[in-house]
Amino acid sequence: MYNFFGRLGFKDILQELLEAEMDASLGYSKNHKAGLDTDNKRNGYSQKTIKSQFGEFPLDIPRDRNGEFEPKLVPKHQRDVSGIEDDLYGIEMSAEMVSKITDRILPEVKEWQSRPLNSLYPFVFMDAIHYKVRDEGRIVSKAAYIVLGVTTEGYKDILSITVGANESSKFWLGMLNDLKNRGVQDVLFFCVDGLPGFRDAIQTVFPQAQIQRCIIHMLRNSFKYVNYSDLKKFASDFKAVYNASTEEMGKLELETLKGTWGKKYPYAIRSWEDNWEDLSSFYQFSGELRKIMYTTNIIEGVNRQYRKATKNKSVFPNDASLAKMLYLASQNVMKKWTQRYRGWDQVIGQLILLYGERLTQYL
């Protein structure tokens, strides 16, 4: 698990952010020659003890000669900063100030994005969330591609965040090769939401891996073609397909569903037939392992936290600004992931029976 804010630690990063806030307030950085031509300068520090979820620690609060600086990150007379990581981007700051603050942690972002990874992940989830970004004077929609892995010990970890403009086999090849270059030798399952070009890329970089499409997303897509008056019954009948005990039974139930609803709602069922290979991997398993595989709820929960962190930002000035903000949100999410998946012993036991030495060599 990667610690919140990495090696700098919570205290050190708060100190960096306060220094950046002072830079923004004065209009120049520490020891910059611009400070020679102003009547307001830095004037040392005052120290106060801060209370946080990581315990108490002293923090040096920058002062200016004119006494005008009032930090918003740690306001005057406030000593308890518990939960400040949740509110970092909710604080009322200018875009320039936010940029200067986040620039302080850019080296940390780059280090995190290139850190070594585990040799094998039983499950890797991939999804995209879209944002407006300024690019060469135009505002365009760009996707942040999130890669989340589940370790052999049953813990979740965000492996990478990549901001890009398109979804193609070439793009995915780059992302997957990055995982491999950082030490990932094998992945048992990729759980995805029908990302274009992804199958070809997986077969090139991780040819042994299986793909599992998100069942929940497929159901939602099918339901769009069904009249509201039929939806309850249609959804109930569909349960027999994805709750079937085996793939063969699942196919039979899909044929039964087609016989009942196929003429009225052909498109609602056709997508399952067309994508059956990527939908049926989970039938090999039972119990908790199925729950992990056939939904991308795990990564949707992460995306909700990203949206919360970026809700006040309608347009990002560049890709780096978006990546920095998502990095901060990611660290906040991951510090809460202290528990293993429920029933992980059962899950890893099933995987060992199926994959044998391919898996056990990494345990």
UniProtKB/TrEMBL annotation:
One Pfam family hit: Transposase_mut
Molecular-function annotations in GO: DNA binding; transposase activity
Keywords attached to this entry: DNA recombination, DNA-binding, Transposable element, Transposition
InterPro entries per UniProt: Transposase_mutator
GO biological process, one term: DNA transposition
Family statement: Belongs to the transposase mutator family.
Protein task: Required for the transposition of the insertion element.
Protein name per Swiss-Prot or TrEMBL: Mutator family transposase
Source organism of this protein record: Hungatella hathewayi
